[in-house]
Hints:
Bound molecules: iron/sulfur cluster
Distance between the termini: 35 Å
Shape: globular
Number of domains: 3
Low-confidence stretches: none
Mean pLDDT: 90
Strand order of the largest sheet: 1-10-7-4-2-3
CATH superfamily of the largest domain: NagB/RpiA/CoA transferase-like
CATH class of the largest domain: Alpha Beta
Number of helices: 23
Number of strands: 10
Helix content: 40-55%
Structural class: alpha/beta
Radius of gyration: 24 Å
CATH topology of the largest domain: Rossmann fold
CATH architecture of the largest domain: 3-Layer(aba) Sandwich
Amino acid sequence: MTAALDRAATELLPAGPRLVAHDAAVFALREKRDAAGSAEPDFERLREYARAAKAHTLDHLDLYLERFEARATAAGAIVHWAEDAPALNRIVHALLAERGARQVVKSKSMLTEECGLNPYLESRGIEVVDTDLGERIVQLGHEPPSHIIMPAIHRTREDIGALFARELDVPAGETDPARLTEAARRHLRGHFLGADAAITGANFAVAETGTLVVVTNEGNADLGMSLPKLHIACLGLEKLVPGLADLAVFLRLLARSATGQPISVYTSLVTGPRPDSELHIVLVDNGRTRLLADEHHKRALGCIRCGACLNTCPVYRRAGGHAYGFAIPGPIGAVLAPALGRTAEQRRLPLASTLCGSCTAVCPVKIDLHEQLIAWRATDVPRGARERWLARLAARVLASPALYQLAGRAARVVWPVLSRRWPGNPAAAWLAARALPEHPGASFRARWRARRREGVQ
Ligand code: SF4
């Protein structure tokens, strides 16, 4: 874990009830995913199909992008290409400015978070209202999303009640989720009705038909793109799937892996604009072709942004999404950051992992996430002197059975003494801050024998 990540994690989720609630809420999603996967007899076959389909699409991405552009254009959409984040922001702003649009409703899109579209438009006098409930909560709270499908999962209902009392005139002390949601609906409805344009992302883009696929549980994207006469869809190049048959597989995997649902509540397929309306599709590179040229890491472009790897990750669950300092947190964020991130701190994110491999085990498209993290660590992840020294020491200890045993014995003797004599020592303080169980001070074997002696199975 990097020092900056640790600092940010402690600020966002200090030890105590907030951290426990976050851990439980996130892990509940993982459990729902497991139950949904077990209930689907073909789950593993679907995962294998999805892995192969993504690998094939990425190997022939040029072909599928051209096919998508041709079919979408034939259906009446206008396709734009953005090389990087500034290009995306300029294209979207120009489209809005040329039509005099001042109010925009936007549905959740991690790509626009990655490219900083909201602040860019707002600094030019365009009001952007995020319409996903979680996204609106973090927007009103002036903070970034902390999860890719549950942007406000780090907030308790008390936090949201206080925020809505301040921003939406909800009675102080209101914490009932149904009444808070109703207040948000009333607030957002006015924005939907008054919007000049809608901006959405897309979960998939079907090359065979030039179709955009937008998946939500709230219907906010569907309502947003049905009312104004201008719809701008922003998506990364990697969202392509070859055909509708492939799409069916990805839809079955996405909802099950994200929230444990058999299917998301709303799945909208958009092929061309509505009558008397405009549909602009912006295909964004922003570092993706660089990743595509990397034979090993290009597999990360297969990500369908389900969030399952975040939900199972012990680092994410205890650190929270803001700690990563990158638009996409968790294991997939740590894999993408060295290629797509802009700062040295973001490129160090592969260090923020225990390498337990749980992320790889749950990924619906079978991205070898922990292997990718190891591969990044072996290449150009910038390290501080302390990390280099610790890595060298660990390598020496792990390479020698004698040293390893000696270190284990020393830890068992030294740890209890250290904790007793120096309760505020950095290791103990860190453990307390992350609400981890205390170090047992004995080997697993010794504890197991003791439990057997006590009759505990
Ligand atoms: S890497 Fe896999 S598990 Fe993680 S968000 Fe992407 S698709 Fe889901």
